[in-house]
Amino acid sequence: MSESDHAPHTYILTRTKTEAQRIARSLDRQYDAWQANIKYLLHPAITIYDHARVADIGRYWNCIMDGQMTDCSNIASWIWLRDISRELPSSCQLQGFDISAARFPDRQTLFSNVTLFEHDMFKPFAEDFMGDYDVVHVRLMIVALSSNQWAMAVQDLMTFLRKF
Protein backbone atom coordinates (compact mmCIF):
# COMPACT_ATOMS: atom_id res chain seq x y z
CA MET A 1 0.00 0.00 0.00
CA SER A 2 1.38 3.40 -0.86
CA GLU A 3 2.10 6.07 1.73
CA SER A 4 -0.74 8.17 0.30
CA ASP A 5 -3.20 5.39 1.17
CA HIS A 6 -2.30 5.99 4.81
CA ALA A 7 -2.28 9.77 4.71
CA PRO A 8 -4.64 11.65 7.05
CA HIS A 9 -6.37 13.30 4.07
CA THR A 10 -8.05 9.97 3.30
CA TYR A 11 -10.29 10.47 6.34
CA ILE A 12 -13.76 10.12 4.86
CA LEU A 13 -15.97 12.06 7.28
CA THR A 14 -16.82 15.70 6.62
CA ARG A 15 -13.86 17.87 7.51
CA THR A 16 -15.48 21.11 8.63
CA LYS A 17 -15.22 22.59 12.10
CA THR A 18 -19.01 22.48 12.39
CA GLU A 19 -19.03 18.74 11.71
CA ALA A 20 -16.23 18.18 14.22
CA GLN A 21 -18.24 20.01 16.88
CA ARG A 22 -21.37 18.01 16.03
CA ILE A 23 -19.46 14.75 16.41
CA ALA A 24 -18.01 15.95 19.70
CA ARG A 25 -21.45 16.75 21.11
CA SER A 26 -23.07 13.53 20.00
CA LEU A 27 -20.37 10.89 20.51
CA ASP A 28 -21.58 9.65 23.89
CA ARG A 29 -25.23 9.75 22.78
CA GLN A 30 -24.36 7.72 19.68
CA TYR A 31 -22.54 5.22 21.84
CA ASP A 32 -25.52 4.98 24.23
CA ALA A 33 -27.89 4.40 21.30
CA TRP A 34 -25.57 1.75 19.89
CA GLN A 35 -25.40 0.01 23.27
CA ALA A 36 -29.17 0.19 23.73
CA ASN A 37 -29.58 -1.67 20.45
CA ILE A 38 -26.88 -4.32 20.62
CA LYS A 39 -27.05 -4.78 24.43
CA TYR A 40 -23.44 -5.93 24.92
CA LEU A 41 -19.91 -4.55 24.91
CA LEU A 42 -18.35 -7.76 23.62
CA HIS A 43 -20.26 -10.24 21.49
CA PRO A 44 -21.69 -12.98 23.76
CA ALA A 45 -19.77 -15.64 21.79
CA ILE A 46 -16.49 -14.14 23.03
CA THR A 47 -15.35 -15.75 26.27
CA ILE A 48 -13.08 -13.66 28.46
CA TYR A 49 -10.88 -15.41 30.98
CA ASP A 50 -8.98 -13.99 33.94
CA HIS A 51 -5.80 -12.27 32.77
CA ALA A 52 -7.15 -11.77 29.22
CA ARG A 53 -5.66 -8.92 27.20
CA VAL A 54 -7.91 -6.58 25.24
CA ALA A 55 -6.76 -3.95 22.72
CA ASP A 56 -9.01 -1.02 21.80
CA ILE A 57 -7.86 0.57 18.54
CA GLY A 58 -8.52 4.10 17.31
CA ARG A 59 -10.68 5.67 19.95
CA TYR A 60 -9.59 9.22 19.15
CA TRP A 61 -11.56 11.03 16.49
CA ASN A 62 -8.98 13.11 14.65
CA CYS A 63 -10.26 15.89 12.50
CA ILE A 64 -8.70 17.04 9.29
CA MET A 65 -9.35 20.57 8.15
CA ASP A 66 -7.52 22.17 5.25
CA GLY A 67 -5.36 19.06 4.95
CA GLN A 68 -4.01 19.42 8.50
CA MET A 69 -4.63 17.22 11.53
CA THR A 70 -6.31 19.37 14.17
CA ASP A 71 -7.59 19.02 17.69
CA CYS A 72 -11.38 18.72 17.67
CA SER A 73 -12.33 19.97 21.11
CA ASN A 74 -12.07 16.90 23.27
CA ILE A 75 -13.92 14.54 20.95
CA ALA A 76 -12.40 11.40 22.43
CA SER A 77 -14.29 9.89 25.33
CA TRP A 78 -12.75 6.42 25.65
CA ILE A 79 -16.23 5.38 26.74
CA TRP A 80 -16.04 1.76 25.49
CA LEU A 81 -12.73 1.16 27.24
CA ARG A 82 -14.14 2.68 30.42
CA ASP A 83 -17.26 0.51 30.28
CA ILE A 84 -15.49 -2.73 29.42
CA SER A 85 -13.03 -2.15 32.27
CA ARG A 86 -16.01 -2.15 34.65
CA GLU A 87 -17.42 -5.35 33.16
CA LEU A 88 -14.30 -7.54 32.94
CA PRO A 89 -12.29 -8.99 35.83
CA SER A 90 -9.69 -6.56 37.17
CA SER A 91 -7.02 -9.13 36.27
CA CYS A 92 -7.63 -8.41 32.56
CA GLN A 93 -5.25 -5.98 30.88
CA LEU A 94 -6.94 -3.36 28.70
CA GLN A 95 -4.86 -1.29 26.31
CA GLY A 96 -6.06 1.55 24.12
CA PHE A 97 -4.18 2.67 21.02
CA ASP A 98 -4.66 5.93 19.18
CA ILE A 99 -2.97 8.19 16.70
CA SER A 100 -2.66 11.05 19.20
CA ALA A 101 -2.22 11.23 22.96
CA ALA A 102 -3.52 14.81 22.97
CA ARG A 103 -6.92 13.78 24.32
CA PHE A 104 -5.98 10.86 26.53
CA PRO A 105 -7.78 11.13 29.88
CA ASP A 106 -5.77 11.74 33.03
CA ARG A 107 -4.11 8.54 34.22
CA GLN A 108 -5.79 8.80 37.63
CA THR A 109 -9.24 8.61 35.98
CA LEU A 110 -8.47 5.19 34.46
CA PHE A 111 -8.74 1.82 36.15
CA SER A 112 -5.35 0.41 37.13
CA ASN A 113 -5.60 -2.28 34.44
CA VAL A 114 -6.01 0.26 31.60
CA THR A 115 -3.02 1.61 29.67
CA LEU A 116 -3.09 3.99 26.70
CA PHE A 117 -0.57 4.15 23.86
CA GLU A 118 -0.05 6.66 21.09
CA HIS A 119 0.25 4.84 17.77
CA ASP A 120 -0.80 5.26 14.15
CA MET A 121 -2.53 2.02 13.13
CA PHE A 122 -0.95 2.27 9.67
CA LYS A 123 2.57 2.03 11.03
CA PRO A 124 4.13 -1.19 12.30
CA PHE A 125 3.33 -2.02 15.90
CA ALA A 126 6.10 -3.01 18.29
CA GLU A 127 6.85 -6.72 18.51
CA ASP A 128 5.74 -6.59 22.17
CA PHE A 129 2.13 -6.31 21.01
CA MET A 130 2.18 -9.09 18.41
CA GLY A 131 0.20 -12.22 19.27
CA ASP A 132 -0.52 -10.90 22.74
CA TYR A 133 -4.26 -10.14 22.71
CA ASP A 134 -7.39 -12.20 23.18
CA VAL A 135 -9.67 -9.46 21.79
CA VAL A 136 -8.99 -6.54 19.44
CA HIS A 137 -11.83 -3.99 19.48
CA VAL A 138 -12.19 -1.74 16.42
CA ARG A 139 -15.86 -0.73 16.51
CA LEU A 140 -16.92 1.90 13.99
CA MET A 141 -13.50 2.23 12.36
CA ILE A 142 -15.39 1.82 9.09
CA VAL A 143 -16.24 5.53 9.23
CA ALA A 144 -12.59 6.52 9.55
CA LEU A 145 -11.07 4.31 6.84
CA SER A 146 -11.53 4.25 3.11
CA SER A 147 -12.27 0.94 1.42
CA ASN A 148 -8.71 0.60 0.12
CA GLN A 149 -7.34 0.91 3.69
CA TRP A 150 -9.38 -1.91 5.19
CA ALA A 151 -7.39 -4.90 3.94
CA MET A 152 -4.11 -3.53 5.32
CA ALA A 153 -5.72 -2.49 8.61
CA VAL A 154 -7.31 -5.91 9.17
CA GLN A 155 -4.11 -7.69 8.21
CA ASP A 156 -2.09 -5.59 10.68
CA LEU A 157 -4.64 -5.93 13.48
CA MET A 158 -4.85 -9.71 13.07
CA THR A 159 -1.19 -9.87 14.14
CA PHE A 160 -2.31 -8.65 17.57
CA LEU A 161 -4.35 -11.77 18.25
CA ARG A 162 -3.01 -14.63 20.32
CA LYS A 163 -2.76 -17.94 18.47
CA PHE A 164 -4.94 -20.67 19.95
Judged by helices, strands and strand pairing, the structural class is alpha/beta
**Total of helices:** 4
Number of β-strand runs:
6
Q: In which range does the helix fraction lie? A: 25-40%
Shape: globular
Order of SSEs: HHEEEHEEEH
Outline the structure in words.
This protein has 164 residues and is an alpha/beta fold. It has one domain (3-158): 3-Layer(aba) Sandwich (Rossmann fold). It has 4 helices and 6 strands, in the order ααβββαβββα. The strands form 2 sheets. Strands 5-4-1-6 form a 4-stranded parallel beta sheet, with helices on one face. A two-stranded antiparallel sheet has the order 2-3. A hairpin with a 2-residue loop joins strand 2 (63-65) and strand 3 (68-70). The chain is globular, with a radius of gyration of 16 Å. The model is unreliable at 1-9 and 60-76 (pLDDT under 50). This is Methyltransferase domain-containing protein. InterPro entries: SAM-dependent_MTases_sf.
Summary tags:
4 helices; about 160 residues; Rossmann fold; two-stranded antiparallel ribbon; alpha/beta; 4-stranded parallel sheet
Question: What's the SSE blueprint?
Answer:
Blueprint lengths: L2 H4 L10 H22 L14 E5 L5 E3 L2 E3 L8 H9 L5 E6 L15 E5 L16 E3 L9 H12 L6
Short summary:
The protein is an alpha/beta fold. It has helices spanning 3-6, 17-38, 79-87, 147-158, and strands spanning 53-57, 63-65, 68-70, 93-98, 114-118, 135-137. The strands form 2 sheets. Strands 5-4-1-6 form a 4-stranded parallel β-sheet, covered by helices on one side.
